[in-house]
Amino acid sequence: GAGVSQSPSNKVTEKGKDVELRCDPISGHTALYWYRQSLGQGLEFLIYFQGNSAPDKSGLPSDRFSAERTGGSVSTLTIQRTQQEDSAVYLCASSLGGLNEQFFGPGTRLTVL
Amino acid sequence: SQQGEEDPQALSIQEGENATMNCSYKTSINNLQWYRQNSGRGLVHLILIRSNEREKHSGRLRVTLDTSKKSSSLLITASRAADTASYFCAPWGGGADGLTFGKGTHLIIQP
Predict the structure, then answer these.
(1) Which residues of chain A make contact with B44, given a CB cutoff of 8 A?
(2) B10 CA: distance to closest CA in chain A (Å)
(3) Distance CA A111, CA A25 (A)
(4) DSSP letter, residue A25
(5) How many contacts (CB atoms, under 8 Å) link A and B?
(6) What is the mean pLDDT of chain B?
(7) Which of A48, A67, B13, B71 has minimal CB crowding within 10 Å?
(8) Burial per residue of B22-54, b for 16 or more beta-carbon CB atoms within 10 angstroms, e otherwise
(9) How do residues B56-89 score in pLDDT, each as one tens digit?
């Protein structure tokens, strides 16, 4: 079956522009996670959605970051007024529920010039 | 979330040999997951072991968990060139918490 998909796969933008990243989880997975992986750094957890519940946004690095999940399925991560330090690979993962293994998408490589 | 620490940081072995890597963590967990990341590719889930399990097998993979020592090990038997990758452990305490990966073990399989 289809895995987690993310789009775009690559995004180059200018500093100050807004970007929107999309994640399609595995069908039937109720939990969805966003992470980012900067060059040479480990995985940084950003936000977690469980079903239609309101997410805990405390992991988002700044108020320029926001995420939503419509209808308990597709999720978008929006970064406003991008900065160069936002450059990273943004990964999305989904799972059947919080206690289950997470399946990662291929990521979106964001480059802010 | 807590971060696991993988050891060794790098491991180079001959094809066909077994590879063992270890993971230590600090606080109690619900489960511990192992992932692999090939150069330029995404993260692939390998195996999940729950806190009430001591050992789990999946193909050529064997994972152990010792909650008293807060440690886990991943054994890859009969290694292949395609096993060359970075391996990460992710101890997970539950709740609305994501995974946190450490620097991983970079495994190189020499042909």
Answers:
(1) 104
(2) 15
(3) 23
(4) P
(5) 57
(6) 91
(7) B13
(8) bbbbeeebebbbbbbbeeeebbebbbbbeeeee
(9) 999 999 999 999 999 999 999 999 999 999 999 9
Q: DSSP H helical segments within chain B, as ranges? A: none
Q: Using an 8 Å Cβ cutoff, are A32 and A21 in contact?
A: no
What is the per-residue pLDDT for A98? 66
Question: Per the CB < 8 Å rule, is A91 touching B42?
Answer: yes
Tokens for A3, please give them: 């895995």
HEC string for A39-105: CCCCEEEEEEEECCCCCECCCCCCCCEEEEEHHHCCEEEEECCCCHHHCEEEEEEEECCCCCCCEEC
Is A18 exposed, middle or buried, given 0-12, 13-18 or 19+ CB atoms closer than 10 A? exposed
Query: Are B108 and B8 within 8 A, CB to CB?
Result: no
Structure tokens at A26: 């595995």
Paired with B49 in beta bridges are B32
- What percent of chain B stands above pLDDT 70? 95
Closest Cα in chain B, distance from residue A81 (Å): 25
